[in-house]
Input
Amino acid sequence: MERWQLTQMQNLPLEVKISKTKQRIKEWYEKYDGDIYISFSGGKDSTVLLDIARSIYPDIEAVYVDTGLEYPELREFVKTFENVTWLKPKMNFKDVIEKYGYPVVSKEQSQFIRQYRNAKSEKTKETRLNGNKWGMGKISKKWLPLINAPFKVSDQCCDIMKKNPVKKYEKETNKKAIIGVMADESMKRVQDYLKFGCNSFDSKRPMSRPLGFWTEQDVLNYLYTYKLPYASVYGDIVLESCGRLSTTRLDRTGCMFCMYGCHKEDTPNRFQKMKETHPKIYDYCINKLGLGEVLDYINVKY
Output
């Protein structure tokens, strides 16, 4: 698929998108004879996905990974649904950061920093400092100081706490995932969508992304239009003067303790908001887990 085709898809009316999403889910369901599940985080994207999927297949299973990193409101919201399988990782976040390091800046940059700091060959170090022959694969100049940080940096957290429990579950059940990611969330997801489309039947780990061509406005519009219940951590959905929908509390949820992308956020950022909304968890993150030291190092206020 070309980028212009994705843009064209993203500009379709909501009702058309719903219809296309249902078709992608049906194709996935039929391909695997119903041995599929919905990856359900309790967030607004996966809430919409689950609602659409269960409008076709009411008994479809949802799977929730209880990492201990989610907002309490999301966890309680997930409890209100039937037919949800709860998975748990083998390690908690405290053990992960002690053994591997903190998730900071971005998954790519934290991976490069980890690889540089643990490299056994000078070639690997050279590549991470200056890039390969195409100039790719290097640590950003802005984040080079992190190679000498007094704390570990790593991209391993998501793999250990989210992906590994799901992979184990898939191996045991042979079920294939439907996930609620959208291309407009990052350049990496744009690239994935252009490469695989909604249903990647032939990839090493087959996966369905039937909301891939949706936008955040589509998700909010669905919740708002169909009055679908969603986790209270988002607050209310309101119509702004510019005609766009927004939430009155958090706009994105994800893992509470994750620092990916926080340096790009406007004030108040996720940690400043957490200080007001969840002060006990904030204290645990900043002081007990040492996130304050990391945020100081990358010059992010909290």
